[in-house]
UniProtKB/TrEMBL annotation, chain A:
Keywords: ATP-binding, Nucleotide-binding, Transport. GO terms for molecular function: ATP binding. This is ATP-binding cassette domain-containing protein. CDD domains: ABC_NikE_OppD_transporters. The keyword ATP-binding applies. It comes from Agromyces humatus. It comes from the Bacteria. Belongs to the ABC transporter superfamily. Residues 6-251 form the ABC transporter domain. The keyword Transport applies.
Automatic annotation (TrEMBL), chain B:
It comes from the Bacteria. CDD domains: ABC_NikE_OppD_transporters, TM_PBP2. The chain crosses the membrane at residues 28-50, 91-115, 127-146, 152-170, 205-224, 259-280. This is Dipeptide/oligopeptide/nickel ABC transporter permease/ATP-binding protein.
TrEMBL record, chain C:
Residues 95-299 form the ABC transmembrane type-1 domain. Belongs to the binding-protein-dependent transport system permease family. It comes from Agromyces humatus. It is found in: Cell membrane. Keywords: Cell membrane, Membrane, Transmembrane, Transmembrane helix, Transport. This is ABC transporter permease. It is a multi-pass membrane protein. InterPro entries: BPD_transp_1_N, MetI-like, MetI-like_sf. SUPFAM superfamilies: MetI-like.
Length: 285, 649, 313
């Protein structure tokens, strides 16, 4: 069961610098992660930490300038478009913004059929599969002939999830899939992710800026900061008793919905920051 | 040469389905299509409709008046004007089409390649485009005529090349705007080749702007062509409208009506093309408006259907005369810093109904108190905040209730708009605002410092030097390490967190009594959010200012608020002390919201809000709680967002 | 800023060379027998051949172009092949008329379009409707057709203006005023209608920006928001429209000059191209392109000044 599905070793992603002879920008500085079959790795970090770049590098949407990505035993660091097409059966994606991740000009049925037809699925088989998918994500069957704009954010994200599930993938890269959603909708979409994993055994790389979300959905958690992974391990440990100062800061910065506990968290955070500042000035001296 | 066409990546959505339908519901669109249809028919059947050959000259009967054998008279060579007009339509329209075809043939593929791949082709093509656009077009056309002979076809091909940059730029911008859209990424992940991505996902976006552009280009082509021929550069053997115009103008003293006909034909055709282009554009914009309204409506959930009968039609809206007639506020409520009573806000719709977004909302804020307004998108929390500030959109109406600030009405009973006169005296001075999105709320064209200094000079009536000194103090106070540098920076040179600090500095700069903070930390990273919350708390304590904190985050509420107002669908569902609401919520919706919070929940368990899987629950007490919620999910919780949306559709 | 300007000037020079070469090539292949045109029908074949040699018409394309370009670099644009006038002289006689016309028209357009567009955006109501309808009508009627209608009504029917230019060499300002008023108005009208429409949408787009709301919340007056913030942010869009209109006018003026029989550069261009008077045509092209490059550079500099973000990059 616990077979290694994805391993990323020492991955480097560089974007060319803006302007003539500018230094290239290093978005990932040698990142290593691994995901076993049927497991979820939560990837948490702030904007600009490189977490989204890591997801995009796996999908072939960001330039890999060093290191390797091994998926299902194959090196896919520099997969060609043809290899990607084959790969898309096993490796899929759900993006953050449900408003731009679905082509507004296409009907939901066509959106869901796209990954199927490109793999050569027949029209009738594709229709059958689309019906199953809509059921699976809890959308009515008549959604097929509707366009994305007729749906709310949460429903659009369900369509995006259905598209990712269409080919029964082994791994789905989920790039902030709930951050654009309202609280109650977020809860329901997270439930859907958990149910799908329970039913299909799919693995997730779950990217989020929200420690609570990542803790809730992941087996393991990796924390990114400025293009590096600063801490990774079992979700419970990393998200409740973090060791790295950055993770500690992250945990203590996220407010809890109770005034007194929040006041305490605030005090702890102050203490941590003061200690860090003291460390810093001590080492400077 | 041609007007720029706006591009919206979502525009493609409208083309396939209802664009044609929408053009035909627009009277001007119908007129345009009708005129063009007549012109095209006349051109197609010119040989049948024309009584004479275009060049048949009745030498003995030149410049004849309209009537008799010659319906519209004859020209200076005795040729039948009506026949020439018909043949002219043929030649003029066909050559204009050729021009557009050439321009599209060059501009579209080049734009697609340059926009999609970028790189050296893009650089080269863009340079070449600049070259073409700097060419003095008419000189090139004149030279081309000298080189290649006086043919309308040749000059229109040349002109097509000259205006191809219009299509190139249009296509390139459109492609660039969608090239990085997530749905194109999704197609790449699915392994679609570039060719299929372009045809399936990108061409659809270019299509509508292309139609608009082509309508304009056809008009310009006809204009330029007739202009050239007017200069006497046409082929006299070819009857086109321009040649007729030229002949007419030469004989304007003898027979002024001669040039009326080609002018009419040219004006009507170009006018129809312009109208058609506008109709397509309007149809697209309408579509977007509908889409946007729908998005808002689905977000605003059930509020769409609600129509407040008390609201009169938009036409007899009156804003009350100020001050003199202002009634006194309800006795015993003067001491509240702010009091909102039974407030209603709505937007009149085209069909005369009113879409109500805030209904019967009441709460108050006392001096030095922080009141959190919590709700999801569409709950009306921001609309409530903006009605207090008097910054609602022009189309909004107060549909009921009052707002009073420091013992005087800002919205008196019966007012249908917030009185700008009354609020102008308060905004900036006594009521301040902290927005959600830090970057878009600073004017990118001015330095940070001047955006702080100017309001202080206006509001406090102090000198620039004094205001500058204060602004630097404020920047230091809000925790900016190097105030001088930030003061001199442009907004794009500072980070989001710093920009939010600047905005907070701006809000407190004139020592207000009430600050309205609309999701002040939502756009920030969580560590920055914690810092900004600290700052807000310190400032609030120090200044003793009242705060309305609009947010969707209970953690933020717990951090700052003394009291909480929970809103849903434009109404207040529950209000009270922060501990009471967060620890023992009475209302079902508040409980649903709190239960959706992940903090403190058992990881890897479903939260029970989604059917059908039963939630795994750790304790008996929680089981009872979840049981209650799932019950509700079946009945009353049709009120939760998505369920309503499904019903509303 | 300086490097930016220098870069733009350098690319302008490259553009100038490219366009000159392109036009020269086009003219080289023109079918007109220039020598025959100059000498008339009575000349013998030998005379024509001799003339061709004299003008260098028997030389290959590049030799002729380099010869011309060399002249330009030393400030000599050559002489007309048909009369003894130097190109520089003949352009200098005509440029003032054309430039006056275009500059007056573009200034009027800028002022009127800004006032109308802003009023339409801010006040809405009937001004807005007039601007919107005007834009459609302005787009529908080509400028020169409008000019023809003007001539017919105001000059021929009502006799308020002369239908033909009264500008002679050494004419006083009154002659200029009388002769240029009608054509300038004709050129302005169509440009204003579309310009006002575009200013309107640019202003509306700015008024909907978040920072405008924040400025209001700070107690900044509507007037200050409009003139200091909104107008400034909308200006780059307006300037770009104006520069395009300016280039359009440089072309359109050729026809306008023909209609009003103005002795400007356009009329010169028309006669020179139909005769094949290459030195004159090249002179006209050179001057026009230089004007276009200068205008574009000025607009870019102004936009950079207006938008600090552009300035940095």
């Amino acid at each position: 069961m616990n077979e290694r599905l994805l391993s990323v070793d020492d991955l480097v992603v560089e974007y060319p610098g803006k302007g003539f002879r500018a230094e290239p920008f290093r978005a990932l500085k040698g990142v290593s992660i691994a995901i076993d079959q049927g497991r979820t790795l939560g990837l948490v970090g702030e904007s600009g930490s490189g977490k989204t770049t890591l997801g995009r590098a796996l999908l072939g949407l960001a330039p890999v300038s060093g290191g390797t990505v091994t998926f299902d035993g194959r090196d896919i660091s520099h997969a060609s478009r043809r290899q990607r097409r084959e790969l898309s059966r096993d490796l899929q994606v759900v993006f953050q913004d449900p408003y731009t991740s679905l082509n507004p000009a296409m009907e939901v049925g066509d959106i869901l059929a796209e990954p199927l037809t490109i793999q050569g699925t027949s029209a009738t088989a594709a229709n059958q599969r689309i019906r199953e998918l809509l059921d699976r994500v809890g959308l009515p069957q008549d959604s097929v002939h509707r366009r994305p704009r007729e749906f709310s954010g949460g429903q659009r994200q369900r369509v995006a999830i259905a598209r990712a599930l269409a080919l029964k993938p082994k791994l789905i890269v989920c790039d902030e899939p709930v951050s654009a959603l309202d609280l109650t909708t977020q809860a329901r979409v997270l439930d859907l992710f958990l149910e799908i994993q329970r039913d299909t055994g799919v693995a997730y790389l779950f990217i989020s800026h929200d420690l609570d979300v990542v803790r809730h959905i992941s087996h393991d958690v990796a924390v990114m900061y400025r293009g590096d992974i600063v801490e990774q391990g079992r979700a419970e440990l990393v998200t409740r008793t973090p060791e790295h100062p950055y993770t500690q800061r992250l945990l203590l910065a996220s407010p809890v919905p109770d005034p007194d506990r929040q006041a305490e968290r605030r005090r702890n955070r102050r203490r941590l920051l003061d200690a860090e500042a003291a460390d810093l000035s001590a080492s400077a001296a | 040469m041609t007007q720029p066409v706006d591009i919206d990546p979502r525009a493609g959505a409208m083309v396939r389905s209802s664009l044609v339908k929408r053009i035909f519901t627009n009277p001007l669109g119908i007129i345009a299509v009708a005129i063009l249809a007549i012109m095209i028919l006349a051109a197609t059947f010119a040989a049948l409709l024309a009584p004479f050959d275009q060049n048949f000259a009745d030498i003995g009967n030149t410049l004849a008046a309209p009537g008799g054998e010659h319906l519209l008279g004859t020209d200076s060579a005795g040729r039948d004007v009506w026949s020439r007009l018909l043949y002219g339509a043929q030649l003029t329209l066909l050559s204009a089409l050729l021009c557009a075809a050439v321009a599209i043939g060059i501009g579209l593929p080049a734009g697609l390649i340059a926009g999609y791949y970028g790189g050296p082709f893009d650089t080269g093509a863009s340079w070449f485009t600049n070259l073409l656009m700097s060419l003095p077009g008419i000189i090139v056309l004149l030279s081309a005529r000298a080189a290649l002979g006086p043919s309308v076809w040749i000059s229109m091909i040349m002109f097509g090349i000259l205006i191809s940059p219009g299509y190139y730029r249009l296509t390139r911008t459109a492609v660039q705007s969608v090239r990085n859209e997530l749905y194109v990424d999704a197609a790449r992940v699915a392994g679609l080749g570039d060719g299929r991505i372009i045809t399936r996902h990108i061409l659809s976006v270019v299509r509508a702007p292309l139609i608009i552009q082509t309508a304009m280009v056809l008009g310009v082509a006809i204009a330029v062509q007739s202009g050239l021929e007017f200069l006497g550069l046409g082929n006299p053997a070819e009857a086109t409208w321009g040649v007729m115009l030229s002949d007419g103008f030469r004989n304007v003293y003898l027979s002024p009506q001669l040039f009326v006909w080609p002018v009419l034909a040219i004006g009507l055709t170009i006018g129809a093309l312009v109208l058609l282009g506008n109709a397509v554009r309007d149809a697209l914009e309408d579509g977007q408006k509908i889409a946007k309204a729908k998005r808002r409506a689905t977000d605003a959930t059930g509020a769409v259907a609600a129509v407040d009968a008390r609201v009169p039609a938009a036409s007899d809206v009156r804003t009350r005369a100020v001050s003199a007639a202002l009634p006194a506020v309800e006795a015993g409520t003067e001491h509240h810093l702010l009091r909102v009573s039974n407030l209603g806000v709505g937007y009149p719709q085209a069909d005369g109904s009113v879409r109500s977004v805030v209904r019967n909302v009441s709460f108050h804020v006392d001096r030095g108190e922080v009141v959190g307004i919590v709700g999801e998108s569409g709950s009306g929390k921001s609309q409530t905040a903006f009605s207090i500030l008097g910054l609602l959109p022009d189309t909004a109406r107060i549909t009921g209730g009052t707002i009073q600030f420091d013992g005087a009405y800002t919205v008196a009973p019966g007012d249908e708009r917030v009185s700008q006169t009354r609020l102008r005296a308060l905004r900036g001075r006594r009521i301040a605002y902290i927005p959600q999105e830090p970057m878009s709320n600073l004017d990118p064209a001015y330095r940070v410092g001047s955006q702080l200094v100017r309001p202080m000079m206006l509001v406090l009536g102090i000198s620039r030097a004094e205001a500058t000194r204060r602004a630097l103090d404020l920047l230091e106070k809000v925790g900016i390490a190097d105030p001088k540098r930030t003061f001199d920076a442009y907004p794009h040179e500072i980070s989001g967190g710093m920009a939010q600090r600047v905005l907070i500095a701006g809000a407190i700069s004139c020592e207000p009594d009430l600050i309205i903070a609309d999701e002040p930390t939502t756009a920030l990273d969580v560590t920055v959010q914690a810092e900004v919350l600290d700052l807000l708390r310190d400032m609030q304590k120090e200044l003793g200012v009242g705060v309305i904190l609009v947010t969707h985050n209970f953690g933020v509420v717990a951090d700052l608020a003394d009291r909480v107002v929970v809103m849903q669908h434009g109404s207040v569902v529950e209000a009270g002390q922060v501990r009471d609401i967060l620890r023992d919520p009475r209302d079902v919706y508040t409980r649903t919201l709190l239960d959706s919070m992940l903090e403190g929940k058992e990881p890897m368990t479903t939260l029970g809000s989604s059917a059908p899987a039963a939630p795994v629950v750790p304790t008996l007490a929680d089981a009872a709680r979840v049981g209650l919620i799932t019950d509700v999910a079946a009945t009353a919780s049709t009120e939760t967002n998505e369920a309503i949306e499904e019903v509303a559709r | 800023m300086v490097t930016f300007t220098l870069k733009r000037i350098a690319s302008g020079i490259v553009l100038l060379v490219a366009i000159s070469l392109l036009t020269y090539t086009l003219l080289y292949f023109s079918g007109t027998n220039i020598a025959r045109n100059i000498l008339g029908d009575m000349a013998t074949e030998d005379q024509v051949a001799l003339k061709q040699q004299e003008l260098g018409l028997d030389q290959p394309l590049f030799a002729r172009f380099l010869d011309w370009a060399g002249g330009v670099l030393s400030g000599d644009l050559g002489r007309s092949w048909f009369n003894a006038e130097t190109v520089g002289q003949s352009l200098m006689n005509r440029l003032p008329i054309t430039l006056t016309l275009v500059v007056v028209a573009i200034l009027l357009t800028a002022i009127l379009a800004t006032v109308l567009g802003m009023t339409a955006a801010v006040k809405r109501g009937w001004v807005d409707r007039v601007v919107q309808i005007g834009a459609v009508i302005g787009d529908a009627i080509p400028g020169f057709v409008l000019a023809i209608i003007f001539v017919t009504i105001f000059a021929i029917q009502l006799g308020l203006f002369p239908a033909i230019s009264t500008i002679a060499p050494g004419a006083g300002p009154d002659a200029w005023l009388i002769s240029l008023t009608l054509p300038a108005i004709a050129m302005t009208v169509t440009a204003v209608t579309s310009g006002a429409q575009q200013v309107r949408s640019a202003v509306i787009a700015q008024l909907e920006k978040d920072y405008v709301r924040t400025l209001r919340s700070r107690g900044v007056s509507e007037r200050e928001i409009l003139f200091k913030h909104v107008l400034r942010s909308a200006a780059p869009a307006g300037l770009t429209v104006l520069s395009l209109q300016f280039i359009g006018m440089l072309g359109g003026v050729v026809i306008i000059e023909q209609i009003f029989a103005l002795p400007g550069m356009g009329a010169l261009a028309v006669s020179a191209t139909s005769l094949g008077d290459i030195p004159i045509v090249m002179g006209v092209v050179l001057y026009t392109v230089i004007i276009v490059i200068i205008v574009n550079l000025l607009v870019d500099l102004a936009n950079g000044w207006l938008n600090p973000k552009v300035r940095v990059s």
